[in-house]
Design brief:
Blueprint lengths: L1 H13 L6 H6 L7 E5 L19 H5 L7 E3 L24 E3 L2 E7 L4 E6 L4 E2 L9 E2 L2 H12 L12 E8 L2 E6 L6 H7 L8 H6 L13 E7 L3 E6 L6 E4 L2 E4 L5 E5 L4 H9 L5 E5 L4 H7 L4 E6 L2 E7 L9 H10 L2 H8 L4 E2 L21 H4 L6 H10 L6 E8 L3 H15 L3 E8 L1 H9 L6 E7 L5 H7 L13 H11 L4 H18 L2 E3 L2 E8 L3 E2 L13 H5 L2 E2 L1 H6 L3
Parallel strand pairs: 1-14, 1-15, 19-20, 19-21
Antiparallel strand pairs: 2-3, 4-5, 5-9, 6-7, 8-9, 10-11, 11-14, 12-13, 15-23, 16-23, 17-21, 17-22, 18-23, 24-25
Helix pairs in contact: 9-12, 16-17
Length: 564
């Protein structure tokens, strides 16, 4: 009977049928095999291996082996009957967080602190030439925090709310606060800059991929710049997954391989031909052809967790005049971009707050008229505002754009065409990602800067994009009053009151128009049916997919029967 059911199941999958999350969960996991992935950042190679560098992409590449205090509770994913898709770049609702290295945590008052009890018996594997196998202890958490906090690359004021971090005993860490901070768990628990790294790796050289070593489900065993990251199973990994009432040791696959593929046609072909098991970010333009040529693929559609915009240097002429910035917004036909360029596969308004942020996001129709007009095509008024601002004949300016982003390389010339109709001309300068990012972080970018910026989470999206001196504030926007409001929001414990404050600041920044606000596209994830225990989840923390990949298994028999 079991073999008959299995053959029927394979036949249904081969015919392109979609299984529900519950049905997938009843299958028995299988160990072994390699998971070949074109990740969300398929065009970008690893940028750093060391948390000390404060690089935004670090968790994506190191989250297979460096673990954190907290992570997403993947048992609450939609595939398991839960409410969460887990696609946000750095947003975990409080109801969907679990302890990873932390077994439990509790608040104490006077002094205000979070006391974190670590799980006992979690081991670092042996790393020849770097360290012997040993247990993770509280001193490792303290060391990781203190080192990160001492970096000259640290984001301004990021840990200013923390008085000190110390080990109470071998398995207890205390984070003592100067003041409450609404992002306390994100900042050093599951955020971009939260990995726990042993001192031995730092002593050996943490920037060298050959030295890295963590407690996670995989170990980095090969790295070829611009080509691949290879992660092999950690044989002494501590965590387990409960499936069908039974616990299984993680991870299931022997290897996870990230493929770095800069050419869009090449990574689409790699998915279609089964060379990639998963491709996490697919533009809508490729979806119809893939569904025809590879009908067995399974799909998930999600609204991009990054906002697209043309940033304007607000401290330089002519962009120091808000009338100019508002004029450029009105000069771009954003509804036409949604309908004609994206073929409807985009939302006109979904940034800087994301529609998934319930309580923080307000739809455009509920916004003041002054905000709504920025999303309404009105070239006549744009010309009037430019004339009022002293630019009756328009002006020209340079714009940098990353050649790594096919969507931007096609969209920016379209934006330039709209602006030219009101006398504003763009000089477009494509750049490789490293140079493009460096231009912003060193504040050497051109007056215009065309980019994506992650929504991150409901509070960070305003702070990092518009607070004074922030790295990810490309327009250079600075207002002491806004900075003060952001600090008040962070110190507000009541989430409903915090939501109200954030909604007000969001309206304020939309009105000030430091960017030409552009539509947010939908993105697609596709995977072959032999990829099991998966339903399109992308991040289990801040751009960190490691815990997700640890729970996937590959049905190698099915893959072979399907001819791959």
């Amino acid at each position: 009977m079991r073999h008959t059911f299995k053959r029927s199941l394979l036949a249904a999958i081969a015919a392109g049928s979609l299984l529900t999350g519950a049905a997938v969960a009843q299958e028995q996991p299988k160990y072994g095999g390699t998971l070949e992935i074109g990740t969300v950042y398929v065009t970008l190679s690893a940028l750093s291996w060391d948390p000390y560098d404060w690089n935004w992409k670090l968790n994506h590449d190191t989250g297979q082996f460096y673990e954190q205090l907290f992570a997403a509770d993947l048992s609450k994913a939609k595939k398991s009957g839960g409410a969460h898709p887990f696609v946000a770049d750095a947003w975990l609702p409080s109801s969907a967080i679990r302890g990873e290295l932390a077994e439990k945590w509790e608040w104490q008052e006077n002094p205000l602190a979070v006391v974190i009890t670590l799980r006992k018996g979690i081991m670092f594997p042996e790393k020849p030439g770097v360290m012997p196998s040993r247990e993770l202890v509280a001193d490792d958490v303290v060391f990781s925090f203190d080192r990160l906090n001492s970096s000259p690359k640290k984001i301004k004021e990021y840990f200013d709310h923390i008085e000190k971090v110390y080990a109470k005993d071998k398995h207890t860490v205390v984070f003592q606060f100067k003041t409450f901070h609404a992002e306390w768990d994100y900042r050093f628990g599951w955020g971009y800059f939260s990995p726990i790294i042993p001192k031995e790796v730092v002593d050996a050289g943490a920037t060298n991929w050959k030295n890295v070593n963590g407690t996670g489900p995989f170990q980095l065993t090969d790295f070829v710049q611009g080509n691949s990251n290879t992660y092999s199973k950690n044989p002494i990994y501590w965590d387990k997954e409960k499936i069908g009432g039974q616990e299984y040791k993680l991870p299931f696959v022997d290897k996870v391989v990230y493929r770095t593929i800069k050419d869009e046609a090449t990574f689409i072909t790699a998915l279609r031909t089964g060379k990639l098991d998963m491709l996490e970010a697919i533009r809508w333009q490729n979806v119809e052809s893939l569904k025809k040529s590879a009908p067995q693929l399974k799909w998930n559609r999600w609204l991009n967790m990054s906002g697209t915009f043309l940033s304007m240097a607000v401290n330089e002429k002519p962009f120091d005049d808000v009338r100019v910035r508002r004029a450029l917004n009105m000069a771009v036909n954003k509804k036409e971009i949604v309908e004609a360029y994206y073929n409807g596969n985009a939302e006109l308004f979904a940034y800087p707050q994301h529609p998934d942020y319930h309580g923080y996001f307000e739809p455009l129709e509920k916004m003041p008229a002054s905000v709504q007009e920025l999303f309404t095509y009105n070239p006549k008024k744009a010309k009037e505002l430019l004339k009022e601002a002293g630019h009756p004949n328009g002006f020209s300016f340079k714009v940098q754009v990353c050649s790594c982003n096919p969507d931007h390389m096609e969209l920016l010339p379209l934006v330039a065409g709209y602006l030219e109709q009101v006398g504003v001309k763009l000089e477009i300068q494509p750049m490789e990602y490293g140079a493009f990012l460096s231009a912003m972080t060193s504040r050497k970018m051109t007056p215009g800067y065309f980019m994506n910026n992650g929504h991150t989470n409901p509070t960070t999206t305003i702070r990092k994009s518009f607070a004074t001196g922030q790295t990810w504030n490309p327009s250079g926007y600075s207002d002491a009053k806004l900075d003060a409001k952001i600090n008040v929001a962070y110190q507000t414990r009541d989430e409903e009151k915090r939501q109200e404050l954030l909604r007000e600041m969001t309206i304020e920044m939309l009105d000030k128009a430091p960017y030409v606000w552009l539509p947010t596209p939908y993105v697609y994830t596709a995977w072959w049916p032999w990829v099991k225990n998966y339903n399109g989840e992308l991040r289990a923390g801040a751009v960190r997919p490691g815990p997700i990949y640890a729970r996937i298994w590959v049905d190698q028999e099915m893959k072979k029967k399907m001819g791959y």
